[in-house]
Amino acid sequence: MAGGHRRIKGPEESQSPILYATPDQVLDVYTREYIPTRDPLRQRPAYMKVGQQSQATGSAYLESGDTKVVVSVFGPRQAEGREPPIGLEGRLVCDFRWAPFSAPGPRKSSGSKEEKEMSLALQEALLPAVQLQHYPRAQLEVSVLIMQDGGSALSAGITAASLALADAGVQMFDLVVGCGLALRSGPDPVWLLDPVLYEEKQAAVVLTVAFMPMSNQVSGLLGSGEGCAADLWAQGLRLGVEGCQILYPTMRSCLVRATRKRREAQIQAQAQRVEERDPTYQAHVRRVMAGNLGPLIEIQTQAQSVVEGDEDTQSMTEGDQAAQQLQPPPPLPVQQPLTKPYK
Predict the structure, then answer these.
(1) pTM to 2 decimals?
(2) What does the alpha-carbon distance between residue 219 and residue 123 come to, in Å, rounded to a whole number?
(3) Nearest of 311, 322, 315, 253 to residue 283 by alpha carbon
(4) Could you list the pLDDT tens digit for every one of the 343 residues in the chain?
(5) Which of 82, 160, 224, 256 reaches 20 to 30 Å from 234, CA-CA?
């Protein structure tokens, strides 16, 4: 079959996908962020953003190192399923999944045992923070998708799910922050905060802590691996709580920044609707909204008045004309009754 001249030819040298890569290449991907002499209390920088999905009620995106998570929240909607709602409280449904291209090596099957376990752990971590009593006979759906697994996937999913619930306007007692830990195997075990994927694979114990900072309560705890002494578990729990408290200000600033941006967009849309409805109120609305949007509207109003009007012939600005038009008319003079002398 002859090739078309309009087709773009492929590169002469190509690299096979990691799905079909050799074990040596897979090991290179695993050890991309691995530093043997790193600080055990080191946390990777995190990037958070909310409200990027218009189809969902609330959404969040979190990126920490090579770990990338997308969360969507739908609802509240009418409860579905065979199980009837218990009492007057709502229902929280969580779904935790890995993308087929999220991790190197063989692809994980959808609906596997590990995904069901992570979904249950996510639900248990978020339940103490959501006020389900305000959503009777309704359900909230939280969907977590791991786009790329670079380590600490469950803790990143818990943090992003809490941001998405707050972005959806769901009433909550507090935000939930997740933090992952890994216990390095060896004669001198040490807890590693925020482990990467290679550290999780080589660790003897993996621990995930879900913490509510303002309430000072642990909402979820999931550990797996070999058994160890109770002192080590207590030490890991304490380090996880400290890691959650470090990450909490970043979550709060992310929500505050998104709320301010959304409020400014609402004010601008409201001003535009009023201007389109009645052009005579244009200067008056801009003068009122300038107190909320800052000096930007004042500068635009001054520039528009200079361009449209002549400074020599125009004695009154558009704002004064609009204010004069809005003044009530003067009262009518009172007429004296006509009286006739009585005969």
Answers:
(1) 0.70
(2) 10
(3) 322
(4) 454 555 555 556 655 555 555 555 555 655 666 666 678 888 888 999 998 888 899 999 999 888 999 999 998 888 776 555 556 788 899 999 998 888 766 666 666 788 899 999 999 999 999 999 888 888 899 999 999 888 889 999 999 999 999 999 999 999 999 999 998 877 778 888 989 888 888 888 899 999 999 999 999 998 887 777 888 888 899 999 999 999 999 999 999 999 998 888 888 888 777 767 766 555 665 665 555 544 444 545 554 554 455 444 444 445 455 445 545 555 555 555 555 554 4
(5) 160
Tell me the H-state helices in the chain: 23-30, 113-126, 153-167, 197-202, 230-277, 282-293, 295-308, 318-326
CB 230 within 8 A of CB 216: no
Domain annotation for the chain: domains and CATH numbers: 18-258 (3.30.230.70), 278-324 (no CATH)
Token pair 């008319």: residue:
329
- Positive or negative, the CA dihedral 105, 110, 113, 117 is positive
Give the residue carrying structure tokens 């990338």: 68
